[in-house]
Amino acid sequence: MTFINYASREINCKIVYYGPGLCGKTTNLQYIYDSTATQAKGKLISLATESDRTLFFDFMPLELGTVRGFKTRFHLYTVPGQVFYEASRKLILKGVDGVVFVADSQEERMDANLESLHNLEENLRSYSYDLMKIPYVLQLNKRDLPNVIPTSDLTVELQRKGEPVIEAIASSGQGVFDTLKAVAKQVLTELRKS
Amino acid sequence: MREQRYHQIKAVMARLRLDCAARLVVLVDKDGQQIAVHGELGELDTTSLASLVAGNVAATGGMAKLIGEREFPTLSHEGERESIHISVIGRVLLVVVFDDRSSLGLVKLRSKQISQELAAAFAEIERDSESATGTDALPFDEITDEEIDSLFSQT
């Protein structure tokens, strides 16, 4: 839920990056962190296992500037992708304002994408959110790898509601900011509607 | 949250900090957003603290459910010099950061005493937002696409 503090004139929105294990959620956040000016960001917190897999979540606050006199801050979270971290994945979705689904474009990861997307829909439902109604973007990541499925096929399989589909190579930053911008725009547009 | 309520809550936090000789008092909502902070901030990154406190409460809440409890209403972490005590008050988390000028017992007692007052204040905030009328419109009703775009050109 977007938190608007009239006294300190701040809007805080929560964006969650979702997707199967090793699809590049943390890489998205790491790129945003590395290419943002120091004054616009807080610390990047990564609660990871010793082998660098996200255990609980990654978190970074990002200040985008002011709109109508209100400081706009986005809290970016990633969930752990591996199937067995279900409990912590569900917790992170609580109070979410917008979701980015990071799909792994490699052929052998298609089942993992579908399973994760289904899991996202279910977990949202448990908090009475509807994927069809919340701000949502589909990112097709790892487009630089040799064994990727064509974008059009991935879109047919994974697109749920006409959401923006963005091709990305998160490791080099391609599509990373376009994705963030697409979801942030929907979140702010929601504020207008409400 | 409106200005007047914010100051009311800040005053309660200031009283709590004084009563239990704490370093810092922070209010966080369960989604990880910081609501208000009072005390010696120093270099402390309170945005990260808020997010981690909410994650911590959510995780221990999950543990509580596994053993058949609804939730754990308080959590405390004691360090060598600095410690943290967290109380769950509805959907708000009251966080007290303290050092050896205070004690866990005192912080627990004072936090508990003040919980009801905070719960009442937040119930009023909820009522305020429910009764907000059209004349009290959000400043974003008229936000334009250009304004949204310009946010991104600032980064």
Q: By CATH's scheme, which homologous superfamily of chain B applies?
A: Dynein light chain 2a, cytoplasmic
Largest sheet of chain A: 8 strands, mixed
* Mean pLDDT over all positions of chain A: 91
The pLDDT mean of chain B sits at 88
- Main structural class of chain B: alpha+beta
List the total number of helices of chain B.
Answer: 4
What percent of residues of chain A are in strands?
25-35%
Q: What is the domain total for the residues of chain A?
A: 1
Q: Which of globular, elongated, flat, extended, rod-shaped describes the shape of chain B?
A: globular
Question: What report would you give on this structure?
Answer:
The complex is a heterodimer of chains A (194) and B (155). The model of chain A has no long low-confidence stretch (mean pLDDT 91). The longest helix of chain A has 18 residues. Chain A has 194 residues and is α/β, with parallel strands linked by helices. Chain A has one domain: Rossmann fold, CATH 3.40.50.300. In chain A, strands 1, 2, 3, 4, 5, 6, 7 and 8 form an eight-stranded mixed sheet that branches. Chain B is α+β, with helices and mostly antiparallel strands. Chain B has a single domain, classed as 2-Layer Sandwich (Beta-Lactamase), CATH 3.30.450. In chain B, 48% of the residues lie in helices and 20% in strands. Chain B has four helices and five strands, in the order αββαβββαα. Chain B has a five-stranded antiparallel sheet with strand order 2-1-5-4-3, with helices on both faces. In chain B, helix 1 packs antiparallel against helix 3. The two termini of chain B are 27 Å apart. At the A-B interface, strand 1, strand 2, strand 4, strand 5 and helix 2 of A face helix 1, helix 2 and helix 4 of B.
